[in-house]
Amino acid sequence: MATIIAGVGSSHVPAIGAALDNGKTGEPYWKRVFSGFEKSKEWMAKTKPDVAIVVYNDHASAFSVDVIPTFALGCAAEFPPADEGWGPRPVPVIKGHPELAAHIAQSVILDEFDLTIVNKMEVDHGLTVPLNLLFGQPRDAWPCPVIPLAVNVVMYPPPTGHRCYMLGKAIRKAVESYREDLRVVIFGTGGLSHQISGPRAGLINSKWDKAFLDNLSKNPKKLTRIPHVEYMREAGAEGIEMVMWLIMRGALDDNVQEVYRFYTVPASNTAVGHIILENRGRAGRKHSAAAKGKQAPRRKASHRLAA
Length: 307
Ligand code: DHB
Ligand code: FE
Prior knowledge:
alpha/beta
């Protein structure tokens, strides 16, 4: 059976991609951001998932305002990087996992979550930047197949946090009914607080962001009842991207092990938030890096790094 072994939350700021692509990671401004992901890359290199499900939003790259699916699951064999105005990012084409994706689509749709099935799709910074932050900059190929799940957070009304959380649970059920023994990591991307236009452009609310991360780790159900208007008011217009983290969280155990957290302000207009949560239930333990005879991350040290 396939298992979700861990969840990763990460901002997906496009300027992070531009810094990577243009060799600026050593500049002090960017060093502060990238240094927070060094431990995460080590964790990912040890964890070696067989598949990553990446929950992200499309920023008018694959979907224009003509068609905006609430939840769109990428079932294709590959997903090229999108042209976001400066040409496609120089990252490898993202290989999908059509068989697992089709299985997830069948399972969650029969569980009454009406996903849009997408068999052709380009993916933008919302997906490629978190991949870089966790997998580094591979030249030719990403280390594992990726199943993109695009969520509408750009045009009202986006899905509620509760709907996202419950979809996460349905995805977990789908993964656990897949016959092959795959170890799956699920990403929630976007956020944290940011607003990129209008009179409140530049808004960042670190206190609210940090409470969000605390609750995400220990008390996620509390987050599922936050109304859209509260995200907008407290975390800025684009802060609504944070509902996507609740899909990731819903796919995990109620009690998780927080193995790493990082928060820094700002990158571009955005508060950068990042968290790694491991499932420690029966299946999670069975599949953890430690159980595979590899060295598990040192949790206390990781926590000390958290700013
Ligand atoms: C920024 C952040 C985003 O998440 C995004 O999609 C676009 C821009 C920013 O901080 O500039
Ligand atoms: Fe975004």
